[in-house]
Amino acid sequence: PVYPVKSSIDIREKTTVENINADRDAVSKIQYLNGLSLPLEKHKVLDKYLETSGDYIPLRNFLVTGVQWVSMVTENLLGHPFIVLRRQCQVYNASNQYHLHPFGLLPSILHLHRRQGITTLWKGVGSCMLVRGMSVAMDDIISKITGWPKEVNSRTAPKRFGKHILLKCISMGVIVPFYAASLVETVQSDIASEKPGLFDVFREGSLRLINWSSHKKGRMLPACSLIGPSVSLGITKYLFNLVIRGVSLRIMRSRVTILQTKHKDKFSNDILEHKNAEIYANLIAMLTTEVIFFPFETILHRLQLQGTRTIIDNLDNGYAVVPILTNYQGVLDCYRTTKLCEGFSGLYKGFGAMVLQYVTHLAVLKSAMWIVSKIIVTLSNRPPSRIVQYYNTDADIGDPSPSISIAELEVNSI
Fold it and tell me: CA geometry: angle at 85 spanning 170 and 363, to 5°?
């Protein structure tokens, strides 16, 4: 009778041990599943692996840089058709339609596309890019010769800031004749004018620069009469843009900082948020500057185009072409004549094209930022590779044994 009792005790102990092991396995599985569902920052033991994980940092930086490139391409290329429409409206002094809102432009745009093709609104894009490149190159050349700074920020000394403004004035003054030649290529009609060559802007700009003070083309104003108003408008817009961009950037960065502090999100995309703030601040500054100085730009474009015998598309209907025939004596005469013959709203002709330009710019920018944010959020929700290694997610759930040794975790936690 002793042996059965002993055997019964052994069986009972064995069953107890098996039950304990089963309970431990169940607890391990529950902890494993709960651990996956908790935010990764809750795992204090693994802070070292979380903080030093840089698996996706290069990709995030690439995506953020991609948003900046999208903004730049939209500003310089995708927005060019709207610049063409705006300038054609600005220089046509005899137009009946002022196109102050974008809806009136849509029928004219459709007619232009049917009559001249889709490329009609991309005319002059090459010369515009060349002029922008010349402006950057001129800034660089003057900076290397004189040592004046090409760029400034809020910590720039007043003396250096003054030298920077002087550099900008000289650069803008040299570029004015080439800008005027580019303006002609932008507004002239494709069906009524010869298509210019890629480098014709240099030839026409150089001729205007050489004929500094002479009137060799009838009513065309000489370069000396255009440089003063052009540089004054250009440097005023530049300073105004700097102020608006600086104020907007400070406000948006402080807002981002407050939101991050409030949510205390350890995995917030700091780089993306700050880059977005810079892009939006730049867009706000550009839009505000263009709206305020739109009438002055209209006057300047009319003066630069005068006497060039340019024929443009009639945007009243989108079918006909019309010549530009004006005889302004200067800035004040252009302002008085425009206000007398067309009213004050005549200075805002083509404002609807600018609205279309920035609505399109904002839509493209929003789409790019949405795509990038979704990609970054997806990457952020994935645990780093060392955490995946620790939990061994690729292994069977029934064997949730860690791959990192307990001794290593204890040393790291200390």
Answer: 95
